[in-house]
Amino acid sequence: MYKAIIFDLDNTLLNYSMCEWHAMRTAVQAHHLFQNDDIRWNEFWEAYCNSNAVHWMNFVRNAGIHHSIEEVLIRSFQDSLAEYQGPNLEQLAQTYWDQFCHSCIMEDGAQSIIQYTSKHYKLGIISNGIGVAQRKRLAAGNILHQFDSIVVSDEIGIRKPKKEIFDLALNELHLSSDEVLYVGDSLSDDYNGARNARIDFCYYNRKGQAIPNEIAPRYVINELRDLMRVT
Hints:
The chain is of the alpha/beta class and about 230 residues long. About 50% of the residues lie in helices and about 10% in strands.
C-alpha cells in the first residue's frame, strides 16, 4: 500500500528526554558542577528544563531571528545557575550542545523497525528541530544513511503542522501523499500536520495516553515494533 514511511524524530525514533538528560549530566560533570550532590543536580535540572522551555518557545515564535540556539542555551543557564559562581556559561553551553549533538539514544524498538522498514520502503524524517543537531545525532547512531529524505524545520523555515513541510518531503521522495505513511508521537504537530497534508498517520502513543474522540489516526501503536503489523 505504501511506498515510503516518514518518521518524526524526537520521542519517536530517538528518546529526546534521555538524550537531553545524558548530555546535560555529562556537561555539568565536565565543568565540575554538582559533584556527588544529587539534590542540587535535581534542583538545577528542574529549573533548567522550565527555563529552557520558555526560551525555546520564544525562539520558535520568532523563527530564530532574534536569538540563536546558543543564546537560548546561555539564557537558560543564566536563569537556572543564577546562585552559582564560577561556571563560564558560554563554555558550559558549548559543552552541552556538543554532547547533545552526538547523543543518539533510541526509543525501544527503533533500531529494529528502521532495519525492517528500510528493506521494504523508502524512509524519511520530518522534524521540528535544529538541522545540525538532528543530522549529527543520526550520524552518531549510524542511521543517517538509512533515510532518503530528511526535512528539518529550522533549515527551511517551516514547522509542523504546516502542510508545506510535508510537501517538501514528498517532493524529495518523488511520491504522492497517498503513497506515504507518517509516524509520530505528537497529536498537535504530527497528527494535524499529516492531516493537513492528507497523509495517513500512525500515532506512536508511547505513553498510552487516552486519545480524544475527535482525533482519528489511521493507526495507533504503543510500541514501535507494532509498526510491522500495520505496514
